[in-house]
Design a protein that fits this description.
The complex is a heterodimer.
Chain A: H1 17-27, H2 29-39, H3 42-64, H4 69-73, H5 77-88, H6 95-110, H7 123-134, H8 136-139, H9 155-163, H10 176-182, H11 188-194, H12 206-223, H13 229-245, H14 257-261, H15 266-273, H16 284-304, H17 310-328
Chain B: E1 26-27, E2 33-37, E3 55-56, E4 76-85, E5 93-101, H1 121-130, H2 143-146, E6 157-161, H3 171-178, H4 180-194, E7 198-204, H5 208-217, E8 224-229, H6 238-246, E9 261-265, H7 266-278, E10 284-290, E11 298-303, H8 308-314, E12 326-327, E13 334-335, E14 349-351, H9 372-376, H10 383-391, H11 395-400, H12 411-415, H13 422-482, H14 488-504, H15 509-534, H16 540-566, H17 571-586
Parallel strand pairs in B: 1-11, 6-7, 6-9, 7-8, 10-14
Antiparallel strand pairs in B: 2-5, 3-4, 4-5, 10-11, 12-13, 12-14
Helix pairs in contact in B: 1-4, 3-5, 4-7, 10-13, 15-16, 16-17
The chains are: A mainly alpha, B alpha/beta.
Chain lengths: 348, 587
């Protein structure tokens, strides 16, 4: 009678990589719904087409690297990358923009560095920044949201925009930040009054979009997919910066904390981008530093930088710093240090 | 109400305790053969003190006292003393004493201690050692070695571990439910030895019956406190339990005693009672048999050395294909390769999972640094960093990240979504680091020896050289003394002359010497003339020099002749003159 000899532990928890990735995909749903509501079907077309490209690129890369294709495709990591990138891209982006962005994310930013788990930079953000630098015109072509434009394009218009860009009549509008930058010296209230499309304190729709991503993020926190440290630290740092420079009114103030928290990619970045475990700091203390650094950078780039797309740049810069942060934020291991004190709070 | 502290991390695996915690402890049958490995605990092992063929009775000591002793669990005949498979992760063989049981269970007369309070801590410790008591919780540390002796009263807190946090296992639970009084009696003995200021009995809140039993047993006692706390794995780890109950941490690499804490398992406490109050050595223990491959699961009071197959048979074991036999629980238990392995002092559970009950691990995927492992680690390590360093064999970083503080509880492996067998990496890395350190130590030792040898040889050579130089100096000095003019031949001649002179001891000495000199100068003159005659005159310089030499010698000869004739002048001056002449000749 032969017995099977394996090492402990013999029990395994319910979590698996595909479940983690699947949960992340699920959690993007509220945000995607909000985006679709305000910007139309272009968001969905982006995600679906981008997803197909991602799966193809992933398979190709795995084949070239002589690795098993099926188990890796099943971990959904490629889909997560492409979905996050496609959410960040302007809806009604032409197909080639998606193709370039997604394939760069998967092939270069992920597989060239060794594949899942080895990439030092967030692949979605690498793809995004490559597009931003290479195709600034297409990348800044955002449709006016519902409430500013009369209606949002439907599915057919979205497909047309994607696969036959020349025939699609794109409309664009300035962002509140641009407006503030271009109109220094005015009171924000006057500015908003003169530009009703920005709503009360940020662009129309963006509050809802950010709130929806916040909801998805809270779901992930509840599910224990990541810890609160990085998002909370980033949002706090961003709020603090805004609070310091906010003067309650003039357009030179750089915007209120609330404006920064609920505009642009703030919540999306805080809960879906900077929480990417592979390219962030590994310890909870490290994630606090990592998040704070991103918050600071987001504010700085938004208010002082030339590109309005602060989150992507901030994340990539912080990715550079992650190993360094790790080195200096090792948690205090049991039995080292506080041994004799006898007091113990809730250990972070 | 006592404050309960929490420790970092931990997990909540399915407990599955109800599989085995119904029904009372059953007495396992005496098998036809008992196999007692000499090593059932940590530390040195004793040597057998019995011979094959010897008849033994229950309670009889089978080994000497050079290590923790073993006793015969029942009567029989020593069948063999040989290598047998033992319950160890490596599937290794080790020396065992085999008893062929006669099933009559005749015992030697036991010698209980009438009043343990009259014995000193050292005496009680000795008794426990001689009764072969080792920790029954899992590690098997000889109990007496953990106890403070007569001179040491530094223990402030005695903790009795009734936590049993591993899923499936219920042996301590059963013991606490049925033998609470015996455990408490054992705790009294331990307390008498350690003289703690407080005694805490820690039980996880998933054992309501055990808690109730202790509440009843401790109802009128002020000296012991029952502490219950939320169920979480690995609360039963010694360090974690100490943290839960006291908030203190055992310093890395140190023992609980260093912070005034002594921790003992409830099973150990019961064994202490048996050893002192009944005089009965440790020859049996309560073992859980559980898992879906055993249909008649439960807790058995089983004799040490009982082959597991015998015990499993009593639990109606029906093995399946790819059957696993796990000694211990699903988190830290080791799989065994052989059903014949015996139950030993640390066998708290035999787990035989049915098909699909504890699914075999899925193939490992890439680490995505999700950090769930760090969230689960009770030692507050960064398991995924350790994993990368382990794969890179970066021993320096492994130690920097405190690899050796890993308690191998398996919580990280449990939560890893990529199914990476993290604990396995740490075990292997610990072994590799230890091996490298041993290698380094050996290399250092060899290098030191080599360097010492080099140094010694250099020193000897230097000494030899110094001696040689000294001898040379002495010889030179002597030669210089003896021949102030530096001509050893001259010196030798002079010594000979001196001897001659000493022998002659006549008053006409001086003149004799002068005459001899005269004869020499005459010879020299003759030679110089010869040379001059032989000269072909090709080099005028040489010719003139030879002529000059002949002239000088002639004049010197004339001087000497004058001196001898007049017995006046100074020989020294003549000497120096003759020296100059000889130099000229040489030229």
């Amino acid at each position: 009678m032969s017995l099977l000899v394996v090492t402990s532990p013999h029990a395994h928890g319910p979590m698996s990589t595909s479940r983690v990735m699947g949960t992340v995909l699920m959690a993007t749903l509220p945000g995607v719904v909000a985006l679709t509501y305000y910007f139309g079907a272009g968001v969905i077309v982006n995600i679906v087409f981008g997803g197909l490209v991602a799966l193809l690129c992933e398979s190709l890369a795995l084949l070239l690297r002589k690795q098993a294709v099926k188990p890796f495709l099943k971990d959904y990591s490629a889909l997560v990358t492409s979905t996050l990138l496609c959410i960040a891209l302007p809806p009604y982006a032409p197909w080639w923009l998606l193709l370039v962005g997604v394939s760069f994310s998967i092939l270069i930013a992920k597989h060239l560095y060794g594949g899942l788990g080895y990439n030092p930079f967030n692949p979605a953000m690498v793809g995004y920044v490559v597009l931003l630098i290479s195709f600034p015109l297409q990348m800044s072509t955002w449709m006016p949201p519902l409430g500013v434009g009369e209606s949002v394009p439907g599915l057919l218009a979205a497909l047309q925009a994607c696969f036959n860009p020349e025939s699609f009549d794109a409309q664009t509008m300035a962002t509140p930040l641009d407006l503030m930058r271009q109109n220094k010296g005015l009171l924000l209230s006057d500015l908003y009054a003169a530009n009703p499309q920005f709503g009360a304190f940020q662009g129309v729709g963006w509050f809802a979009v950010n709130a929806a991503f916040l909801l998805g993020g809270l779901y992930l926190l509840y599910k224990g997919i990541f810890t609160w440290h990085a998002p909370v630290s980033m949002l706090l740092a961003l709020s603090l910066c805004a609070l310091i420079f906010y003067d309650e009114g003039s357009s030179a103030s750089g915007g209120s904390p609330l404006f920064h928290l609920f505009s642009g990619a703030t919540m999306f970045g805080a809960f879906f981008i900077i929480t990417d475990p592979v390219s962030s700091a590994v310890s909870n203390r490290g994630r606090l530093v990592f998040g704070a650094m991103i918050g600071l950078l987001v504010y700085t780039i938004r208010v002082r930088g030339n590109y309005p797309d602060a989150v992507a740049f901030a994340v990539l810069i912080a990715n550079f710093a992650a190993p360094f942060i790790d080195n200096y934020t090792q948690p205090k291991v049991y039995g080292h240090g506080k041994g004799k004190g006898g007091s113990k709070g809730s250990e972070a | 109400m006592r404050r309960i502290y929490d420790f970092h991390g931990g997990i909540y695996p399915a407990e599955r305790k109800t599989l085995s915690n119904e029904g009372s402890i059953r007495k396992a049958a005496i098998p036809s053969q008992l196999v007692l490995p000499l090593a059932q605990h940590i530390g040195p092992t004793a040597a057998p003190a019995v011979a094959v063929g010897q008849e033994v009775r229950g309670g009889e000591r089978l080994t000497d006292l050079s290590g923790l002793p073993l006793h015969a669990p029942t009567s029989g005949v020593i069948g063999a003393i040989e290598e047998r498979p033992i319950p160890h992760a490596s599937g290794m063989m080790a020396p065992c004493i085999v008893i062929n049981c006669d099933k009559e269970d005749r015992w030697i007369e036991l010698t209980p201690v009438e009043d343990f309070r009259r014995l000193s801590p050292d005496q009680l410790g000795r008794q426990l050692f001689e009764a072969g008591i080792a920790g029954l919780g899992g590690a098997g540390f000889p109990t007496a070695r953990k106890l403070p002796g007569d001179s040491n009263d530094a223990i402030k807190t005695l903790i009795i571990n009734g936590t049993e946090c591993e899923p499936y296992i219920t042996s301590d639970d059963a013991l606490m439910r049925e033998r609470a009084d015996r455990i408490i009696a054992g705790v009294e003995i331990l307390a008498h030895i350690a003289r703690p200021k407080e005694i805490l009995i820690g039980i996880e809140d998933n054992k309501p019956e055990a808690i109730a039993a202790f509440e009843t047993a401790l109802a009128r006692r002020e000296d012991m406190e029952l502490v219950t706390f939320p169920t979480k794995y690995p609360s039963g780890g010694e360090k974690q339990l100490i943290e839960i109950l006291t908030g203190k941490e055992v310093p890395s690499g140190g023992l609980p005693a260093s912070i005034g804490i002594l921790c003992q398992n409830v099973g150990t406490a019961a064994a202490v009672h048996d050893a002192i109050v009944l005089g009965r050595p440790l020859v049996s223990r309560v073992t859980t048999v559980t898992g879906e491959s055993a249909r008649n699961r439960g807790n058995f009071d089983v004799l040490l050395g009982t082959p597991m197959e015998d015990l499993l048979a009593q639990a109606d074991y029906q093995p399946t294909v790819r059957q696993r036999l796990i000694m211990g629980g699903p988190m830290m238990g080791v799989t065994l390769a052989d059903h014949r392995c015996p139950v030993i002092k640390t066998t708290n559970c035999l787990l035989v999972p049915g098909p699909g009950e504890l699914p075999e691990p899925e193939p490992a995927q890439a680490c995505i640094r999700c950090g769930l492992c760090a969230e689960a680690c009770p030692a507050r390590l960064l398991p995924q960093q350790l994993y990368w360093f382990a794969r890179a064999q970066n021993h320096e970083q492994l130690e920097e990240h405190h690899l050796f503080d890993c308690i191998e509880c398996g919580a990280c492996s449990y939560v890893c979504p990529s199914h990476i067998p993290l604990v396995q990496y740490y075990r292997a890395s610990k072994a590799a680091v230890r091996e490298q350190k041993a290698d380094n130590a050996r290399a250092d030792h060899a290098r030191e020896r080599f360097e010492a040898r080099q140094e010694r040889m250099a020193r000897e050579a230097a000494e030899k050289e110094a001696k040689r130089a000294a001898r040379k100096r002495a010889a030179l000095a002597k030669a210089a003394d003896q021949a102030a003019d530096g001509d050893p031949i001259q010196a030798a001649i002079e010594r000979a002359q001196a001897r001659k002179a000493a022998l002659a001891k006549t008053p006409g000495d001086e003149q004799a010497i002068q005459r001899e000199k005269l004869a020499r100068i005459e010879t020299r003159l003759a030679k110089a003339r010869e040379k001059l005659a032989a000269d072909d005159g090709s080099d005028p310089a040489i010719t003139s020099a030879l002529e000059k030499a002949v002239a000088t010698t002639e004049s010197k000869l004339a001087d000497l002749q004058t001196t001898i004739a007049g017995a006046g002048g100074t020989p020294a001056r003549t000497d120096s003159d003759s020296e100059t002449t000889s130099e000229t000749e040489n030229a």
